[in-house]
């Protein structure tokens, strides 16, 4: 019986697919476009089916014959608003266990403009009648891939807040936590917050990428106004303001959670390891 992985063409989903295959599970992948290069690059053994969260009925073929699924809470760039319909379809199709990769900052109120759009999905999952596991990671190491073009072209990273300190997490560790929740007992009703094993300052992450590619990378620190301009075409305005607000608290994301080690039995991968794994993206 296949395990359905949504977001399989993405950072965490891609790692999850490889880990499930390595553990001899049958994998079905959902994508909006099976002809896209990312979908075509999925391993041969994966059954790739089309479906779009924005039109929940399109998920019916992917859900057929599935009892376990991984749900990435994405709809393009925005939060997943069709979650309740997707959950009902999944339940009707026979899904019993679901892992949910999403966003949550428990320190923020339910009416916070960044948090509010996510919370109804969390409640819908918890009330779905399925065995659910929420996975709410810290900041991804993979976000630093946004720097790849600047590093390849000029050997420079332009970003604000060089002292921003974050327990960046490797996608393979997030995927390993999800793998455990999908394939082992004892994870139902749990909320995991995978982080990396140590906080990393932004300017140090830049240096470690330089070490991994064998040439120095310069860090040009932007002011908040310069960052607004730099990010204008990359992120929605409210997300930019959220990034800038977070950046005012340099150690705001430095908290290291024990979850990766508790679930997988070993410490999370370091940023140095991530940079070595992905050095070719920056060359
Ligand atoms: N980045 C961070 O620092 C961070 C931190 C905490 C939590 N998160 C959470 O992590 C998740 C993102 O994971 P990721 O970085 O692995 O994703 P990603 O690399 O950005 O990939 C997004 C995936 O979502 C799929 N997708 C997007 N819209 C879809 C739709 N309408 N219907 C079906 N599939 C759709 C895409 O599939 P196709 O394009 O193939 O259709 C793709 O596989 C989000 O829930 C986010 O809140 C991220």
Account of the protein in words:
The structure is a single chain. With 283 residues, this protein is of the alpha/beta class. The chain has a domain at 3-136: NAD(P)-binding Rossmann-like Domain (Rossmann fold, 3-Layer(aba) Sandwich), CATH 3.40.50. Helices cover 38% and strands 16% of the residues. It contains 13 helices and eleven strands. The strands form three sheets. A seven-stranded parallel β-sheet has the order 3-2-1-4-5-6-9, sandwiched between helices. The longest helix is centred in the middle third of the chain and has 13 residues, at 171-183. The protein is globular, with a radius of gyration of 19 Å. It starts with a strand and ends with a helix. NADP nicotinamide-adenine-dinucleotide phosphate is lined by residues 6-13, 31-33, 36, 38-39, 52-54, 72-76, 101-103, 137, 139-140, 143.
Strand tally:
11
Radius of gyration: 19 Å
State the helicity in percent bands: 25-40%
Bound molecules: NADP nicotinamide-adenine-dinucleotide phosphate
Question: Can you say what the CATH homologous superfamily of the domain at 3-136 is?
Answer: NAD(P)-binding Rossmann-like Domain
Q: Strand arrangement, largest sheet?
A: 3-2-1-4-5-6-9
Q: What is the CATH-assigned architecture of the domain at 3-136?
A: 3-Layer(aba) Sandwich
- The run of helices and strands is EHEHEHEHEHEHEEHEEHEHHHHH
Distance between the termini: 40 Å
Write down the CATH class of the domain at 3-136: Alpha Beta
Note poorly predicted spans.
none
- Sheet with most strands: 7 strands, parallel
% residues in beta strands: 15-25%
Whole-number mean pLDDT: 96
């Amino acid at each position: 019986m296949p395990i359905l992985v949504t977001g399989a063409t993405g950072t965490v989903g891609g790692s999850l697919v490889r880990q499930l295959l390595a553990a001899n599970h049958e994998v079905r992948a959902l994508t909006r476009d099976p002809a896209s290069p990312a979908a075509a690059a999925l391993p041969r053994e994966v059954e790739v089916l089309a479906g779009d969260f924005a039109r929940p009925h399109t998920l019916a073929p992917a859900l057929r014959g599935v009892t376990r699924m991984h749900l990435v809470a994405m709809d393009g760039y925005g939060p997943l608003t069709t979650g309740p319909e997707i959950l009902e379809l999944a339940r009707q199709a026979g899904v019993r266990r679901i892992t949910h990769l999403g966003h949550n900052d428990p320190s923020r109120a339910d009416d916070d403009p960044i948090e509010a759009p996510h919370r109804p999905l969390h409640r819908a999952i918890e009330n779905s009648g399925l065995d659910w596991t929420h996975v709410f990671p810290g900041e991804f190491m993979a976000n630093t891939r946004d720097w790849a073009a600047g590093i390849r072209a000029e050997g420079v990273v332009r970003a604000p807040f060089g002292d921003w300190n974050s327990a960046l997490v490797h996608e393979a560790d997030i995927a390993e936590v999800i793998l455990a929740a999908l394939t082992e007992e004892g994870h139902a009703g749990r909320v995991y917050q995978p982080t990396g094993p140590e906080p990393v300052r932004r300017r140090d992450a830049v240096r470690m990428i330089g070490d991994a590619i064998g040439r120095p990378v310069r860090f040009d620190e932007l002011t908040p106004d310069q960052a607004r301009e730099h990010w204008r075409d990359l992120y929605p305005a409210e997300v930019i303001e959220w990034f800038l607000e977070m950046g005012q608290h340099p150690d705001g994301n430095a908290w290291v959670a024990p979850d990766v080690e508790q679930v997988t039995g070993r410490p999370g991968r370091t940023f140095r390891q991530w940079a070595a794994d992905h050095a070719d993206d920056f060359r």
